[in-house]
Q: What sequence folds into this?
DNA sequence: GCGACAG
DNA sequence: ATCTTGTCGC
């Protein structure tokens, strides 16, 4: 299935103007997956809305197969959005995947939506380590560049930016940079992460823990 | 054969 | 991801 998805991935820009950008993140609580999506105005990063979907974990954690663990919940959360974003930022890799089908690319194909994958560690690919603040180094996988390592803050490890779907190496770096507001993680993912944590706390309270 | 391995 | 201990800095 991943090979089939991987063949459908487009690595050129498939968007006009971005007015809304989304960020997706999942957290876990007991046997549940809590998936959260936030939508922000671009490039002001002004909050627009958030949705959540909570479901039972249906697939184990296996590196390389994230889509099957966090995909369903993320898509259900996406369907609940009143304002569909022009581009979605995902907390996972995109085309730096053995089958060209990391979660960011996979969900982009399924939703037919431009996506960018952001991770804290490299899964596939090689790159020089950027040292200076704001320095970016190309990330190669196979023979092509598929993303970047970006040293956002001088005191923290660089983030990994990868092309998801309907985006290019050039645009995924430009867009990610415009989403940075003084923190290591770009706003869509930082806010989505915070929202997921709040939902978990809320759930724990109402179910007695 | 052994180690590494997105969240 | 989650959990835990400890340190640094605004």
A:
């Amino acid at each position: 299935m991943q090979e089939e998805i991987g063949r459908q991935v487009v690595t050129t820009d498939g968007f006009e103007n971005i007015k809304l950008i989304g960020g997706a993140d999942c957290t876990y609580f007991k046997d549940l997956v809590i998936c959260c999506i936030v939508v922000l105005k671009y490039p002001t990063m002004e909050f627009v809305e958030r949705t959540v979907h909570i479901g039972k974990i249906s697939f184990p954690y296996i590196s390389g197969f994230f889509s099957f663990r966090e995909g369903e919940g993320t898509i259900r959360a996406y369907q609940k959005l009143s304002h569909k974003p022009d581009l979605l930022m995902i907390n996972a890799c995109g085309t730096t995947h053995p089958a060209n089908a990391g979660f960011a690319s996979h969900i982009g194909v399924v939703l037919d939506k431009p996506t960018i994958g952001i991770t804290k560690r490299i899964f596939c690919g090689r790159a020089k380590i950027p040292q200076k603040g704001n320095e970016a180094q190309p990330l190669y996988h196979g023979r092509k560049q598929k993303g970047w390592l970006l040293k956002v803050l001088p005191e923290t490890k660089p983030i990994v930016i990868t092309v998801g779907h309907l985006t290019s190496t050039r645009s995924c770096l430009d867009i990610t940079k415009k989403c940075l507001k003084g923190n290591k993680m770009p706003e869509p993912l930082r806010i989505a992460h915070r929202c997921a944590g709040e939902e978990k706390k809320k759930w724990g309270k109402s179910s007695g823990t």
Observations:
- Chain A has five helices and eight strands.
- The first helix of chain A runs from residue 2 to 8.
- Residues 18 and 86 of chain A are 6 Å apart (CA to CA).
- Chain A has a mean pLDDT of 96.
